[in-house]
Amino acid sequence: MRLILTLMICVPLCFAQKMIVEDLDANMLMEVNDEGSVGSITLPQGSAPPETADKLYNVDGVLNWNGSALIPSQTGNSGKVLSTDGTGTVWKTHNVPKAATVGGNQDLKITKNYAWYQNIRSVTITTPGPGMVIAIASGTIDWESKGWDLLLASILSNSDPNESWDAENEFYRYLTIVTDYNCPDSSDQFASFTCHRGFNVGAGTQTFTLWANKYSSAALVSVLDVNLSVMYFPTGTAVFSDSQQILSEDPQIYRENSVAFPPPRAR
To answer: Which residues pair with 84 in a beta bridge?
Structure first.
């Protein structure tokens, strides 16, 4: 196909001029415009060419280069931000860090023993997209018996260790253990504790719960004023993967009156 290059000049009454590149059917392929003190280039709207490498072209009003839109259409994308995966650019919802917390006055007696688990505090957060959640729980333990006292605590997401093998196994993988070291006079003695964990999340509603039990029916344990906070960071702000988790060795067996650390229980 041969091209026709047309140069239009208007003198002496005006100085506007343009350069037009057309095909033999008079279809305008490109136009260079005189805008007074500046210039502009018009590329007609159309579809992508068969070969897009190193080419600039207009697809339905969106300028494309090398097979990808330089700036996708803004229509219907109010409040979003441009994002790229290294090959293309798209508008995405602007995910910002979020946080939720629950806490305050609390005096909760732990009634669940070995193989059963008690909901201490729960907090729910809606995450707009993939990212990471940091969950932190802290509070005070009141040791109320003179025998061996023990608190087992763990933070889980959207799961109940009383109803699921997987949740129960996860409870023990991220376990925090606090003991009174068999203090001979532990009536109304206190200790502080903290649980900390990271979660990979997607978009949706996530409920994070601090679960606990006192292991032995003979123990008298209460938790006071527990605070549970969760903080969401969108992907790109924080990175967390299973390969980066440092898992401690299985806890050493705790024994008192021949009571051993609990194995998986039959349901």
So the answer is: 89
Please name the fold of domain 98-244: Jelly Rolls (2.60.120)
The token pair at 210 is: 């601090």
Give residue limits of the domains in the chain.
Answer: 3-93, 98-244
Across 129-157, b (16+ Cβ under 10 Å) vs e yields eebbbbbbbbbebbbbbebbbbbbbbbbb
Cβ neighbours of residue 63 under 8 Å, at least 6 residues apart?
A: 43, 56, 57, 69, 70, 71
Tell me which residue has tokens 């506007």. 16
pLDDT in tens, 79-126: 677 777 776 777 776 667 789 999 999 999 999 998 899 999 999 999
CA distance 177 to 208: 19
